[in-house]
């Protein structure tokens, strides 16, 4: 029997019990719809995150000083560093052949918690300190200047207030505008008692909503030195984190290996991304198993329908065998019917999943817009591969479900089948 | 030329629970090419069992059955499938047409199983339906046809692959006497004008009288074989005679 004839026979057999065929395929529709929706969410979010990571730059490598195990005496503070990052290290890394020119940026962490505050005119409040972000964070819009300028000269001496800090100080942008270019104080209060105020020139107001005041690196080093009572902070405690830009993405791995060999903790965005990909793969599999479960139930429905159909058509199978159909012909005919139920369900489920994804994309975007969140993009993405795989999988489920009934039909004794009423 | 069918000491043993039942107990029969033979006997005489063995739907438990140089008992499954498809036509008492297919499509089924191209087989089906007088009803489905018409479709289907042997199991059993006579006329002309061999199973002596020879079976054995000097003629309108 030719394939074309087998397929058209299977199709015409399915149409003789339309309602039953459709009801049987509903299970497959639910399964495939779930899988397509879940996997397209996985793909969409992954694409979005990859996009953000690529915007930061996958050639970036992050170095932190290694820390020792915490013991009884150190468990309440930061653990001791077993190796510090000094300006000498920075110079050496800059000279590595795989590092981009001016590609090394060292920074120190100045999150003192409640220990820092700002005094401006009659107003004062607790405000955290920060440095300028080294890169544009994912899913965030770059802050803009609301007054003055927000680029601090690297030499130091001036500061930028964030709107969150203004809120703490109970001031508005308009209140502060006249104070641009004038001096204000940053107060540090050490837990051991002493308080010191450091004067800075107010350079501008940033739209950043954090409760922070931004300082140049030398000023932050100066403040932290006082706070820790460590005049030689940079050589004794070292930098808290260093960003090294490799000259391209391919060189990032070499830079990671080289600096790691010196005994520092090194991570690149690529390794983080690989890790994230693995996490997404696991999440995808977990979400898809929900659809898989639906498909398992659907396949039982297909088995049931096929067995019923074979029972009804026993005499017909007997006739076909008597007039020259082989076991293989009968088996293929029923397997194709089962496969077609799968394909019908698969295509419907795929279309359903596609439309559902589009609707959810709209709903999510509406929510994001209503919250003024700076995120754009599709979170449900149906790729051609996903579409093909979904339909192929549905067909496979149908064919596998059809194996047992088709075999039963193929093995029917033609004499008994012809006598069947 | 060797006879088309030859059986020697043919046996078929069934087990009814623990009791062995001899459906056929040593049948020796020879049927020549182009012969019309009726197998007659009461139910349980073994006539249907003999026909099933001739049709390769069952295998003997003893003896031999040869059809056109193929020993049915020792043939492989594949050989039997090919034999049924290419050399044999089956006509059943209850027509056994595929209900979802039109008359023409039903006639096409054996050709489809043989892998004949759609266009060729459709032309052949139409020609065969024309021969059995149903040229104008080719697009009707079985439930739109009378019993006699359905059996004519079945006759056309049995001839689709131009078989040497046609086996008919009580072909008039479900028909009124007029339709029955028409079918018999068709079957008769199939042997007389086309040289096919026809084996017909019946318990009706009137039907059997159309054959060239009548084989009487009883308890799984041949009781006697009667050569019909003047076979009865089926009534058939002149334009429906098979040519």
Describe this structure in words.
The complex is a heterodimer of chains A (421) and B (243). With 421 residues, chain A is α+β, with helices and mostly antiparallel strands. Chain A folds into two domains: 3-55 and 275-419, no CATH class; 60-266, no CATH class. In chain A, 55% of the residues lie in helices and 16% in strands. Chain A contains 13 helices and twelve strands. Chain A has helices at residues 3-15, 18-56, 87-94, 163-168, 173-176, 217-228, 233-236, 249-261, 269-312, 314-322, 327-370, 384-411, 414-419, and strands at residues 60-64, 99-107, 116-120, 123-126, 128-130, 145-148, 158-162, 183-189, 195-206, 212-215, 241-246, 265-268. In chain A, the strands form two sheets. In chain A, strands 3, 4, 5, 6, 7, 8, 9 and 10 form an eight-stranded mixed beta sheet that branches. A four-stranded antiparallel beta sheet of chain A has the order 2-11-1-12. The longest helix of chain A has 44 residues, at 269-312. Chain A is elongated and about 105 Å long. Chain B has 243 residues and is an alpha/beta fold. Chain B has a domain at 97-161. Chain B is 32% helix and 27% strand. Chain B contains seven helices and ten strands. Chain B has helices at 47-54, 77-86, 103-113, 118-131, 147-158, 177-194, 205-208, and strands at 5-16, 19-31, 36-40, 62-67, 70-71, 88-91, 165-169, 197-202, 213-218, 221-227. In chain B, the strands form two sheets. Chain B has a six-stranded mixed beta sheet, sandwiched between helices. Chain B has a four-stranded antiparallel beta sheet with strand order 2-1-4-5, covered by helices on one side. The two termini of chain B are 24 Å apart. The relative contact order of chain B is 0.19. The mean pLDDT of chain B is 89. Chain A binds chain B through residues 1-2, 4-5, 9, 12-13, 16, 315-316, 318-327, 329, 414-415, 418, and chain B through 52, 55, 57-58, 77-78, 81-82, 84-86, 88-90, 92, 96, 98, 100-101, 109-110, 112-115, 118, 157-158, 161.
């Amino acid at each position: 029997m030719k394939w074309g004839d087998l397929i058209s026979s299977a199709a015409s057999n399915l149409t003789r019990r339309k309602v039953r065929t459709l009801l049987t395929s509903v299970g497959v529709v639910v399964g495939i719809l779930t899988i397509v929706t879940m996997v397209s969410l996985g793909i969409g979010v992954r694409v979005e995150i990859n996009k953000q990571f690529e915007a930061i730059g996958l050639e970036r490598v992050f170095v932190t000083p290694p820390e020792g195990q915490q013991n009884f005496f150190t468990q309440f503070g930061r653990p001791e560093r077993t190796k510090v990052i000094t300006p000498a290290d920075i110079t050496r890394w800059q000279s590595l052949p795989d590092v981009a020119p001016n590609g090394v940026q060292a920074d120190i962490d100045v999150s003192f918690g409640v220990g820092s505050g700002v005094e401006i005119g009659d107003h004062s409040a607790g405000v955290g300190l920060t440095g300028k972000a080294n890169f544009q964070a994912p899913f965030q819009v770059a802050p803009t200047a609301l007054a003055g300028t927000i680029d601090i000269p690297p030499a130091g001496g001036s500061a930028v207030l964030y709107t969150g800090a203004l809120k703490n100080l109970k001031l508005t942008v308009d209140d502060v505008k006249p104070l641009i270019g004038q001096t204000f104080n940053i107060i540090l209060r050490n837990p051991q008692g002493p308080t010191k105020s450091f004067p800075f020139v107010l350079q501008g107001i940033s739209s950043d909503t954090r409760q922070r005041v931004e300082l140049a690196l030398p000023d932050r080093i100066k403040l932290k030195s006082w706070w820790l009572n460590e005049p030689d902070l940079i050589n004794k405690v070292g930098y808290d984190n260093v960003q090294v830009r490799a000259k391209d993405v391919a060189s990032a791995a070499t830079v990671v290996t080289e600096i790691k060999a010196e005994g520092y903790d090194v991570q690149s965005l690529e390794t983080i991304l690989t890790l994230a990909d693995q996490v997404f793969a696991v999440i995808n599999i977990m979400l898809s198993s929900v659809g898989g479960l639906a498909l398992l139930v659907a396949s039982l429905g297909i088995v049931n329908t096929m067995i019923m159909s074979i029972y009804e058509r026993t005499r017909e199978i007997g006739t076909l065998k008597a007039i020259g159909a082989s076991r293989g012909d009968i088996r293929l005919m029923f397997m194709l019917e089962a496969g077609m139920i799968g394909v019908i369900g698969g295509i419907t489920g795929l279309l359903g999943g596609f439309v559902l994804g589009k609707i959810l994309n709209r709903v999510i975007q509406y929510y994001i817009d209503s919250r003024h969140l700076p995120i754009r993009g599709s979170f449900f993405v149906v790729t051609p591969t996903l579409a093909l795989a979904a339909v192929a999988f549905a067909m496979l489920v149908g064919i596998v479900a059809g194996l047992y009934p088709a075999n039963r039909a193929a093995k029917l004794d033609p004499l008994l089948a012809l006598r069947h009423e | 030329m060797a006879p088309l069918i030859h059986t020697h000491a043919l046996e078929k043993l069934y087990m009814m629970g623990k009791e062995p039942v001899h459906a056929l107990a040593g049948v020796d029969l020879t049927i020549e090419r182009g012969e019309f033979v009726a197998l007659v006997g009461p139910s349980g005489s073994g006539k249907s069992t003999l026909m099933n063995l001739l049709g390769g739907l069952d295998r003997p438990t003893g003896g031999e059955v040869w059809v056109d140089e193929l020993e049915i008992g020792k043939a492989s499954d594949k050989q039997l499938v090919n034999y049924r498809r290419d050399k044999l036509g089956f006509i059943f008492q209850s027509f056994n047409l595929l209900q979802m297919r039109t008359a023409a499509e039903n006639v096409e089924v054996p050709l489809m199983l043989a892998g004949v191209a759609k266009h060729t087989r459709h032309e052949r089906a139409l020609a065969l339906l024309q021969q059995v007088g149903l040229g104008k009803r080719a697009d009707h489905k079985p439930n739109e046809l009378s019993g006699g018409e359905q059996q004519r479709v079945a006759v056309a289907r049995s001839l689709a692959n131009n078989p040497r042997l046609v086996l008919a199991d009580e072909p008039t059993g479900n028909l009124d006497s007029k339709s029955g006579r028409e079918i018999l006329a068709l079957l008769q002309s199939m042997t007389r004008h086309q040289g096919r061999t026809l084996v017909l199973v019946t318990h009706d002596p009137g039907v059997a009288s159309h054959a060239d020879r009548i084989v009487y079976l009883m308890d799984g054995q041949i009781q006697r074989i009667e050569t019909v000097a003047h076979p009865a003629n089926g009534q058939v309108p002149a334009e429906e005679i098979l040519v």
